[in-house]
Amino acid sequence: MAKVLYYFVHPQFEKSKVNRLLLQAIPTNDNLVFRDLYELYPKFRINIKAEQKLVLEAETIVWHHPLYWYSCPPLMKLWIDQVLELGWAYGPGGDKLQGKKWLQVISTGGKEEACTREGYHGFTMKEFLLPFYRTATLCGMEFLDPFLTQGSFQQTESSLIPIKKSLTNRILECLGE
């Protein structure tokens, strides 16, 4: 059984130096399954049953994506809409995700202070993530504090070294190591 199912969802990965570097932080481990949704489903045709099987086998689902128009990339939203079916993930008989954990690894172009009440966007990251929190809790999942890399446009390879180490540690923690 894979303890961690790690979904990477970035529609313009080739343009993201931060996410290329963050992916290097993911530990190689027999209990971690890595899936790049844009590589797997370039035509947006999700294999719902295959995804549900993988989710059933995991203890923690990790969503690694940029904050994309104050939300997630479209393929992640489609995955949520299609895979988390009524009667399977939530609602009457929908108990398949009970007790599992939901973790988001999110990058933003803007700096941390931009996502405050007083900042450029006028809302906090916690507020932007409310739909994900509610999705997780509706499915009986524990919503973990997100791992945020903000100000990605200003990050350098050297400034990302401690961030990469923190991400590795966070994933190892999810693996129980």
Describe the structure.
The chain has helices at 17-23, 37-40, 48-57, 74-83, 125-128, 130-138, 157-174, and strands at residues 4-8, 32-36, 60-66, 101-107, 142-143, 147-149. The protein has 177 residues and is an alpha/beta fold. Strands 1, 2, 3, 4, 5 and 6 form a six-stranded parallel beta sheet that branches. Strand 1, helix 1 and strand 2 form a beta-alpha-beta unit. Helix 1 (17-23) packs across helix 7.
Brief summary of the model shown:
The chain has 177 residues and is α/β, with parallel strands linked by helices. The chain has helices at residues 17-23, 37-40, 48-57, 74-83, 125-128, 130-138, 157-174, and strands spanning 4-8, 32-36, 60-66, 101-107, 142-143, 147-149. It has seven helices and six strands; from the N terminus they run E-H-E-H-H-E-H-E-H-H-E-E-H.
The helicity comes to: 25-40%
Radius of gyration: 16 Å
Largest sheet: 6 strands, parallel
Oligomer: single chain
Spatial separation of the terminal alpha carbons: 16 Å
Structural class: alpha/beta
Mean pLDDT: 93
Strand content: 15-25%
With helices defined by DSSP (H or I, 4 residues minimum), what is the helix count?
7
Could you spell the SSE succession in H and E letters?
Answer: EHEHHEHEHHEEH
Low-confidence stretches: none
Number of strands: 6
What overall form do the CA principal axes indicate?
Answer: globular
